[in-house]
């Protein structure tokens, strides 16, 4: 039986039973192969834009005997999804939040049959939440976890309207409420990084630009401290 990284296991846990899946930026197609091996999905598309990982995905799918159940496609983002695929769930993992949001925005027309998006940004989750609000998707769950010293967030979206406060966009409405140890650790790290930047700016040449940057960072630091203090 295949084993997944802890990060991808979290993503897999949000994939509903019996769906048709598109895994975008699939790399070696580990996730769709894992889900297929467990009988969790009916069919999958593994999309990859880079030739090397695309070829690795093809090889992995073939070696696991899933060539008739997983279509591996060399395509840019959501262009890997064809109308006849009738995809229900899309997973996009292992990229920065701004890139995931860009993929969703530029390929929005390919989401016609999609009912759930599971996004796992490596950094900067906020742009995904902002994209969701602007495109009639809402968060139904979030998770945060740590693996090999790195902290990752998982965002689960379904269709529907929602509005979020500035803090909810930044920190995540579910994650803010849960206040897990990993959540606290992530934002304590962020706060420390901002304090270090402030110290450097205080030692730097006094300019209007540096003064504006300092004020902005002070406000961000205040927001972080206010959220984790709750």
UniProtKB/TrEMBL annotation:
SUPFAM superfamilies: S-adenosyl-L-methionine-dependent methyltransferases
Signal peptide stretch: none
Keyword set, alphabetical order: Coiled coil
Coiled coil (UniProt feature): 184-224
Keyword Glycoprotein on entry: no
Short name of any one Pfam family annotated for the protein: TrmK
Protein name (record): tRNA (Adenine(22)-N(1))-methyltransferase
Organism whose genome encodes this protein: Savagea faecisuis
